[in-house]
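Mods, move this if it's the wrong board.
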Amino acid sequence: MMDDDSRSNVPYGAFTALILFLAGVLTLVLRCRRWPTYGVRLPPAPAGTDRTPERAILLPDTLPTGTLPAPDDLTVIEGIGTKVAGVLKSAGIHRLEQLAKATPDELKRALTAAGNRISNPGSWPEQAKLAAAGQWDALQALQAQLKAGRAGSG
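Not the wrong board. Structure tokens:
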């Protein structure tokens, strides 16, 4: 005698066929969909070809070599570590441009309010100005003269 619980009454073949059918419909829909170009318009391809002309591909004049730090990474400034960067971000300074426009006194007040009495932000605006402008060589030269953000032997 066969146990009724040993066999399932669920038609797995029907579910498999339904899933395959829906996957095929989804594939067709995605292939036929026109994806947005977000305002980018390329010139039409030359007659008789189906490729984009090379002049339509915009490349920068020079490609960067090596790795450059992120523009909003305040730790590229000599004397700023992750904790001090967190204090500055809490004070509303999130970008290098903002740090470049701040005065050392304003920065010292923000640091003191957070309990940091050690950091010296005297050179930070100057360093941030160079970093925001992408003048990495000049920034490295300046930082070679600094120690923990202070002028002195490096």
